[in-house]
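To: structure subgroup
Subject: Chain for Friday's discussion

All,

I'm putting the inputs and outputs inline so they're searchable in the archive.
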Amino acid sequence: MSEILRRANVPIKVVGGPHVTHYAKETMNLGADAIFKHDGDRNFNEWLNSGCKEGIYEDYIKNIDTLPFIKREFPGFELEDYMLSGEDTQKTLFKQRSLRRLAMMSSKGCPFRCVFCDVQDKEFRFLSPQRVVDEMEHLLSCGANSIHILDDCFNTNRGRVIKICEEIKNRGLKFQWSGRGRAVLDEVTAEALRSAGCIRLHVGIESLDPEVLKWMNKRITIETSEEFCRTCNEYGIEIVAYFVIGAPMETREYRQELPYRIKDLGVKYPFFNILYPSANTKYYHQLMANGTYKTDYWQAFAEKPAPNFEIPFPRSQELQEELEETAEKCIKIFFNGNNV
């Protein structure tokens, strides 16, 4: 971003997004003329119509039902660019042909506070069921036949999820869709989802160690995740599950058993990440407080960005290499056809 700001030969340079919500002043010092923190859906247009003055602007929209659809009809937009067919399906995770897949958001934020998560908005703001399905119909009218709900936590409000499903069925809409949410599901909600065309849920299970889950502040138990997986499998909903390895109390034995336990859960698409100290997370602040990091690396990077920046590993090189090897092994087991 700093390189773009430096090279851009334009009279006004504007930046928004998660980074500048934390580091607005630092980004202004790098050459931005205007910064938009948090939501820019409303005040950016106001800024355009009022003279484009320099400064830091901040907005937080409580009622996101008032926001218009994202404008998708613009020069250069070709739905065929989003279509999977023929050999392309063999290069993707979900091997289904003739999918014209578009994404939308039905909510903003996540009310949970996992120690490693850098989602900044900790208030769950959501569109009404009618507004959600209105936008789904809009995407279908653009030619899509598959929709992914790219929320941070789609199923936080169970009642809203069921009403969305009812609205889809009441309008007679037939299409497949998926969503990102939390590994919590009961049979009533599962039946509603499947009957309304939901084929897949993307969730963060993160760990199958109770002590690690407690440390992560996941506010979920292994039993809850197991019930989620059983219910999804029973109702034919595919599971994309994210796992994090490398927590301080995690053992080598746990990591060796992990792929076997994931297989037992019936997770079709597991993804593996190594615990990482993202900026302004509780985990990063813990590392600063306990002396693991004696420099605020993210603050220094925000003030003076450097190419190919990498924060030092918060663990030994030996352990880091073991974690990388474990993640690679798990990927090969599930996606290269190797047996557990």
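Points worth raising on Friday:
Residues 1-61 form a domain with the Rossmann fold fold (CATH 3.40.50.280).
The mean pLDDT is 92.

D.
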